[in-house]
# Entry
Amino acid sequence: MKKTILFISLTLGIGFSACDDRLNLNPQQSIDAATALSSAQDIQSALIGAYGVNAGLLGGGLADAELYGTNLNLLPELLASENYVAWRGTFQGYREITTKQMLATNSESQRTWITAYQVINIANSVLESLDKVQNADQKKAFEGEARFLRGIMYFELVRLFALPYGATAANNQLGVPIVLRATQTQAQAAETQARNTVAEVYNQVLDDLQKASTMLPEDNGLRADKYSALGFLARVYLQQADYAKALAAANQVIESGKFRLNENVTNSFRSKNTAESIFEIQQNTQNNPGTSNDGLTTFYASIPANGSAVGRGDVQVLNSFVEQYAPNDARRTELFYIGVKGNGTRYYTGKWSDFGTNIPVIRLAEMLLIRAEANLRLGSAVGATPAADLNAVRLRAGVAPISSPTVEDVLRERVLELAFEGLRIHDIKRTRQSVGTLAWNDPKLVMPIPKREIDANNLLVQNPGY
Amino acid sequence: MRKTLLLLVGILAVLVQAAMAQDRRVTGKVTNAEDGTAVPGVNIQLKGTNRGTQSDASGNYTINVPSAGGTLIFSFIGAVTQEVSIGNRTTVDVKLANDTRSLNEVVVVGYGTQQRRDLTGSQVTIKGDEIARLPVTTFETALQGRTPGVQITQGSGKLGAALQIRVRGAASISASNEPLYVLDGIPITSQDLNTTDNEKISPLSDIDPNDIESIEILKDASAAAIYGSRASNGVVLITTKRGKAGRTNVQVGYYTGFSKPTRLRQFLNGPEYVELFSEAITNAGIELDDPGDGFPGYGLDPNSGVNSNWADAAFQQGSVNQANFNINGGNEKTRFNLAGSTNQQVGIIINNKFNRNNIRLNLDHNITNKFSIGTSLAFARTNNRKVPGDNAFSNPVQLNALPPIQPIFDANDPTGYNRQTLYYNNLVESNNANNYARTYRTFGSLFGSYQLLPGLTFRSEYGFDILNLQEETYQGRLTEDGAPNGEGYQAQTRSNNWTTNNTLSYSKNFGAEHSLDALAGLTYQEQTVSAVSATARNFPTDQFQKLASASQKTDANSTETGYSIVSYLARVNYKFRDRYLFGLTGRIDGSSRFGVDNRYGIFPSVSVGWILSDEDFIKNAVPAVSLLKLRASYGVTGNSEIDNFASRGLYSAIPYAEQVGIRPTQVANTELRWERSKQLDLGLEFGVLNNRINGQIDVYDKTTEDLLLNVPQPATNGFTSIAKNIGSLRNRGLEFSITTQNFVNAFRWSTNFNIAFNRNRITKLNVAPIRASSRFLSYVTEGQPLAIFYGKKYLGVDPQNGNALYEGVNGEPTADYASAPELFVGNPNPDFTGGLSNNFSYKGFDLSFLFQFVYGNDIYNTAGVFQSVNGDYYDNQTRDQLRRWQKPGDITDVPKAILYGGNGTGVSSRWVQDGSFLRLKTASLGYNIPSQLLRKVFVQSARVYVTGLNLLTFTKYDGYDPEVNTGYLGATNQLTNIALGHDFYTPPQARTITVGVNLGF
# Structure
């Protein structure tokens, strides 16, 4: 009996000590958040991660479909679809946006909001971990890059989810919540916060982008550099109708001499990181949202391929828009085609035709047009005459120059040159035009605050009409 | 662990084989007490030993017994077990009395066995012979309608698809709601590991139903708490057939049959399509021949005269074939059961095939009369040619969206099919695409059992379950996804799941009135799942399908994950005067999944039972009562089926073109722990007239607290959800079953009826209501059952203008969809479920049928927004859309047809329907050929039979099949739990008819 008891105790004892240790398993595809950002290399990884693509899954970085990979381009286009494009797809979220009948549960609104704030959290995490970086230059560059990421995300959010800048005199209409600290604990993840005003958000955007433009290096490989920040600054000022500062920023980019217009209108969309490109989303055949039934090519393209088609052909370009181009305009002849979908009756844009090619976000042509517009509005000729800047773009497209252009001429050129590049609704709002019967400041042109956010954060106030 | 094993082996080595006493021979004959016929196959065992034999076809047996004699135990399914003292007789003849519900029957419980009479917990038993003959791919299907309190739902007719099993309701929102499966004492891998889509395939389909001796489903806390943190969803104990001493029995079986869909949804034919859409286009103010929006814009020709039946093209006549053998025998020292089978099925959905080959050897050996060892080894190979997910354009059922005026075939196309269709003509994939999931599975276990002292036995067990899943898909160059030069994918997933159990059991009677059974144990389990996969494009021709031949390797992947769980368990059963029963169980579980601050959980239960029928006051007052037993139990069980690393704060990798970075994916919750279910069960078991009528009633109240919930967070902080223990829900219910032996003589007729009611309610959520998807109505909110349907309420059509109407803010009808509030518009949880079976036998004939019913649940046809929307888009419409509104005054529920009109197209209760059904689940007619005829051909027994599965279905549901649950939202446990009762181009079940023969030699 005694031996038996001894045996049992021994067995259980050995078992206990041996097994308890075995409960400490570690994940193989992830690392512990507490120590994830503990070196300069880690922080660099986190910055790269902010650009990344998490194809087919919710959440990711700039290259993802929720952000520049699709929605930050497509939503501003579909919101201004009148006389422009028709939505031919089955995706309900985009259909609602095109018809301006969005529900608070709109899937595109939700995923774009979530992912934009994820990038903001990465930026905040990097900013809070900068003490781990020893090299002063590197530290400065990292801070600049994090501020760039945060700045452009707030800029995109406030333009999509709030009444436009200028809708009230003081811009005290509701913007989006500003979060400037990293989330490391459960308590922080659960914090609720009310929406800041549009003015406050723009101030934050400017603060971040101004600092980014001084801290980022002139060359930062394939990620954002000083000129990416300046390019966005020019956009922000333009949106605020602050033409002098928009002019200065655009001029600084152009005068850097680092960029020149591509020979051909198609180069920017067929080749990667061309001379014209100021900020560009990197993609390749493996890492792009297109492989997950998402992405610009999936929605915009309908290219014959061996009896089938590349792309879903969901965004049909209306004939009336194609006809706004002169017949010999290279942007008409080379950047439109008749798609497979619609049985040979529909035009599609040729800008987005390959899943794996890059997505230019800011190109020199836009900077030239900003400088031209600002110079015209200010009656100045900083850097070059408005005609010179405008005609540089026109000549490349093979259309006749305009010797003494007006603001209208430049705005029309923006429509033609920058079509399907995610600028349309923003331009309409800043120039106070209308979309069909909806005025520039109509609440129907503002995305709903996602229902899930309202549910999870009782301090959020929904946009009017939702 | 290793040291423990070593120690055990050491002890084995010093054991001395006990000397055998001198033996003598006893023979006899077993007959039926009622009709005097011989009873073959009766187990005859010498009490207190492993010596045993079986009666032969004439009921005769021979057994060696010690010269001192002893006691023989005669047991047979459906008969009262008898113990007969041998004395100094050499012939012992026995008459067995019929008893379908033998109280002395030994049933399997967690880590042991118990007499049914002494059970204080609630568990349901299914015998292997009830399921072995049904033509199903996975054994759970065969349990439908037989298990009160266990709802078993087959979501679709796809071969090898996983079923949904809910023991006493869904006890969780975010963690798995599937029970724990234990095969011969070893917990096995039951979660799907496939990497190609969200729809789950069942790892349980690797088990050969022929191998199963019995299945026990542990329902209440008293029965299940011994499985601790994994017992909240119930536990399914599968016991395989083991060898029996006696003559070697050889069984051979074969069946073959065919299958068809149970039901099909009805769609418009060509002329009807043209009629409806001409009207819709015209109503939209568009010319019929408008090149953009009219028929030509979509490649449609209303005058083509084509009338294709696309919906039917998705289906074919399926077939089933199975052959199996089983050899069983041995002597008192060594016993074996060797079985093998091959099963081949062709699905009712095109391109769907399944085949499985199994081998199993179960071996037991007594080294001495104190020391026995045994092993179970089983190998399975399953090859499943899968159907694409419901949400894929390549899903054949989605063909029903194609306009009937487009031809199916095109002789000029290289595929032979018309590829100029509105949506992808996925028939192309029949010859140009493959999607295989091949499983290679090994179940193995080894045990040793040693009697340390009289009544005290140590048992050590080691078992593993290795699952190798090889997936291979190829999309040819002519398919949508494979264009232009083919795409191939290969994945290898290996799950290595191993367990050791070490238990000490003690059994002793103290005096005449006290009896004690105790068990203590230590177990450890670990699972590692590793996967490797690769994708490539650009193959020289479609004849090359291995990735080596492709020029572009587009993706490669390898992952590994796992968990471990260490447990201490104990059980004490005490019986006083053979009629007052007490039980206590407890388990401590430590799991790697839980937060470091909450690693170990304790799961106790207590139960009592009282066999009133053994009290004199009952015996005397109502002698007809043969059994009256009351039981009560209360206990705590857990659920730990969450992501392996849900408690950790994590950063994961994310690619950016050629670069790669990291991003935060999860915030830590160091307090994360198991969910806790507290369950009270009250049961009454009864039998009258020598148990000719018997049954049981159970009521239960199961409250689950500390729900593991992915709590939605404001995304503004960078995270959308955190796994927390928050919220609670409750399942209450009643289960009733009754079995009657209506006739017991030459003509035998027995009936079983069972019914179960479960009410599920979320009692506390603490978080914002949860939705499954914007396309689904599924909703989780406080005060309502899990997965209630929540959405806008469709009221019908305005007779004046044909506009769709919804219930508005004040209950007034409104045509403004946006302003209509969301309301509770249905419930996918049934009011009750159950079954009714009847078994008849006369002379050699037997007939049985089983009806299954599910009542009071709703179904939402998620595809309604495409297929039943009065011609809003060019998708072919269901035939009911013909009754659309056409002119003022029309009273109908289908709005005016307007192309792109958005008239009644939003998600709403418009596509909610009653999903109740009554189904003739199985019917079987068999004939046992008389043994006199067989002897000449050296056959002992032969049965020929014809069996039907899903023969008749009665329902009001308009869709394919009312037993439906689309799997396309199955990416997470939470989505699987919530997205109930939705139909989305989901294939129906198969109606299968087979004929078969079983021979015994």
